[in-house]
Amino acid sequence: MKVRTSVFATLILMSEVIGIALFLRGFFPVPIKSSLASKNSLSDLPAEPLSGSSPNTTRLPHPLFKRVVIMLVDALRDDFLFGPNGGTFMPYTRHVVERSSSYSFVAKARPPTVTMPRIKALTTGSIPGFIDVVMNLNSPALLEDNLIWQAKTAEKRIIFYGDDTWVRLFPKHFMEYDGTTSFFVSDYTEVDNNVTRHLDSTLKRDDWDILILHYLGLDHIGHISGPYSSLIQPKLMEMDDVLKKIHGALISKEAEGSLPYLLVLCGDHGMSETGSHGGSSEPEVNTPLVLISPAFKRKVGMEKPGVIEQVDLAPTLALGLGLPISQNSVGRVIPGVFQESSLRDQLRFLHLNGHQLNCLLKDSMPSYEKEAGFEQYRVAEKAHGNWMKLYFEGNTSEVLSNMGKKVLKQYLEALAALSSALSKQLGKYDMYSMIAGMVFVFQLLMILLLAMPEALSADAAVDLPVASALLSLPFYLLCLLLASVHVLVCTSATSSCYYCTLSWGLVFVSMLGVGGSPLKTNVSEWSLSELDVLLLAGTVGHTLSLAASSFIEEEHQTWYFLLNTLCLAMFQDVCRKYFREKSTSKDEEDCLLPSKDCWNSALPQPDASSEKWLALATPIFTLVCCRLLRSINQTGVQWAHLPDVGHWLNSSEHRTVLSLLTVFCLVLTYLLVQRRCSWVSKVALAFGLVGVYSYRAAVGNVIFPWQHSSRTMSKGTVEARFVYVFVLGILFSGTKDLLRSQIITADAKLKSRGLWEIYSGLVLLASLLFRAHNLPVLCCCLLIQTLISQFIWKKLHYDAAQITIMHYWFGQAFFYFQGNSNNIATIDISVGFVGLESYVEAPAIFLTALSTYAGPLLWTCHLVCYLSSERHSPVSVGHGCYCLALLRSVPAAVYIVLVTVLRYHLFIWSVFSPKLLYESMHLLLTAGVCLFFITMEQSPRKS
């Protein structure tokens, strides 16, 4: 059965997306949980260990605190409080840390450092996985055992104000609450005022036991302008005044003989050097934790804060309030909090914590008896029983005290070992689903590679031997073997597998793909030029570099090198064409790849005298542009903290320079884009770009000549919506022309104009979403596309395969020129709320994704427009579609192998997971582009 190359590539890509989805379903671990339905209760707590014949006791330690206030400041980094500027940023808090009755720690948060997973860690004591990054957008109710549920069950009265993520996680748990939207990052004032306005009335009341405050303003400032913004200090001083007010109110209500209060100041995660979060860098994972209570000893000077895990707060608060520890907690109690208690109570606290960790270890690890922590806990528990025997016998000698301190040390060592073992076991992988997805994806990749000679032939068609495969005996034997393996695995597995829960129809379809016979391959002899060797070697070399985490963290360096090498290769081709080769009357060239159709041979040749030098200057100009773009945004991991041109432009002293640069870039963007548009779209584009500048002036990035720099900033909602109107108008005009050329008339010029208008609409939208200092990236992208397409690709007669690979390289490089990286923390979520007054999920996700992948998207759309222009044959469209499919399939297939082989290494969570999601998004994008190619290929054309 003959199938067009574009149709074949799209089918393969769609199937590969399904295979990767199956792999990701198995790869994202199920967090360590004993059971979602079961929860610990006071009746389930073990008795105190006691050796001998005397009956043991089930006495529980009395609660340490009557009232707890948790003040959580989103994105509060440890150096904001403990650093050299801590006394300036938060003077009262720093005084409390140095001189008051308090304990201070650096609490390490585990990646992903995103709000919802961190709230789960603080309340359950468990370690969430990267799948919670996706769940963060729409948090479901938390069903597993947690501190809030335990407090409500114990009839504790809880009040909450702040991030509405808490309300979604714990519905019907709060006696009183007022949630604020966390995703609308343009607001950093009202979002905190809505919390503080409740404080005065709440602190005067006595009808609550736990008060939780979640402030978001600091996090929003970080997303908008970074950790070194002039807005940081006023916001931290505001938080310092709030803590002072709470502390003063708690002190004034302290009564003699009653249990003391506890005030907790903490952050859910830190803030990267660019103001974002989500990754595993030190500024993102290090957060301050300050515990303030008259139950603690008063300090006489500043002490270096200790280092604990963030999950340690959950068991500490649970025992301090007289509640059971959450069933899935991997944290250990903070010993200093219980130092003023009796030795018996201290041992009891540690015993309860050890028992909970020991039960979780048994549930999550089959070979738990081999763990060192398990044996250490048994030894400590036995020694604890001997100490209890002496205690009940009335022994008050120093021997009892020394023995108790020894048991205390044994417990602490056992807790550390148990917590470490559970933390390393980040989750349970569904290995069968991962292997099934991996085999499926690789089989599809092999089909692509086997079909390459036929797909890139002059016919641009692939012969699929469907009939011969379905009628062959080996095919049915292989399907029978795979079915038997599937039944064996699904019936013998101790835990359920997602792949086993699928219907037999879906499983049989996937086996048909795996069991298919190879394609017919008529491999013709290929003739490769130097440029072909470079493109193939560079693409394969980049794929091989994915085996090293350092190359992934600094992947931008690979693309910068490849792009510079490509420019030099194009410069060599230009020199060879205009200076080394003898002029000939023959315009046609020999095809270098099977995809070569020589469809450029009939192009008219303009003045060679001027275009020769323009063609010679284009690669050099591209090199200069790429070098300048590298300096705008530092990216990657190792050097992301270094200052760059973007920091310099965004400083308040250079706002005039940024304003002039913005005007220049917008004018040049208009001149480059409007050439292929209708006059209506030209007018809309001009007004839209004026609206872009007005929006940037409204939010304070740039200024008008008549505007004072001290002007109050706004959200720019009206200006952004003004631009959206013209974006939609241009897209509508382009779509109308495109549909008209497809359905009513066979006008190739009309179709080409429609495509370019759609492209210009995307450019206008990107210019609105890009930060002001990133507009040169967009401008250089358009300028390079114009020059290379005019003076390199057309004049040197590059074929569709070469042009596709070049577009792919440029798109990848411009992804990093924007300041992106493979770290999830570099995603700028603030662009998702341009023109929005509140959080609306669908447009926020769309705008954030479009801004993040604007570089690859614009280059892919330019490829569609270029290959679908009237001067190119339909064969070239199919070749481009096939090459795109192959370029996106190879890295994705390599990644799932690396993740499978290295799944137990911690760096996967900070590097491979974001990169794998990035590759999956690109697969979906490429599949959509291929579908568009099919529409273009089957459209009527002028003869």
From TrEMBL:
UniProt keyword terms in alphabetical order = Endoplasmic reticulum, Glycoprotein, GPI-anchor biosynthesis, Membrane, Transferase, Transmembrane, Transmembrane helix
Looking up InterPro entries in the UniProt record yields: Alkaline_phosphatase_core_sf, Phosphodiest/P_Trfase, PIG-G_N, PIGG/GPI7, PIGG/GPI7_C
Keyword Transmembrane helix included in the entry's annotation: yes
Which terms does the record give in the GO molecular function aspect? CP2 mannose-ethanolamine phosphotransferase activity
Please indicate which superkingdom the organism of origin belongs to: Eukaryota
Question: What Gene Ontology cellular component terms go with this record?
Answer: endoplasmic reticulum membrane
Which residue ranges traverse the bilayer?
Answer: 7-28, 431-452, 464-489, 501-519, 531-552, 656-673, 685-706, 718-734, 775-793, 844-869, 881-904, 916-934
Q: Pathway involvement?
A: Glycolipid biosynthesis; glycosylphosphatidylinositol-anchor biosynthesis
All residue ranges annotated as the GPI ethanolamine phosphate transferase 2 C-terminal domain in the record: 522-919
Example GO BP: GPI anchor biosynthetic process
State the Pfam families in the record.
Phosphodiest (PF01663), PIGO_PIGG (PF19316)
**Where is this gene product found?**
Endoplasmic reticulum membrane
Q: Would you tell me the protein name for this molecule?
A: Phosphatidylinositol glycan anchor biosynthesis class G (EMM blood group)
Q: Which species does this protein come from? A: Takifugu rubripes (Japanese pufferfish)
Higher taxonomy: Eukaryota, Metazoa, Chordata, Craniata, Vertebrata
